[in-house]
Amino acid sequence: MIWKLERKQVFVSQFGSAQKFLEWSLENANEWFIKYPNKELKRHVDL
Fold it and tell me: Model-level pTM greater than 0.70?
């Protein structure tokens, strides 16, 4: 699936690679968890 994303022009122009996309996703997820603390979710996810 990630390989298919890397081939799409819009994806490549925004992120450049699957690794950049994953890093961006994890950074945004971490910011979201900090902004909206929910003990139920934080118990199951360790960022």
Answer: no
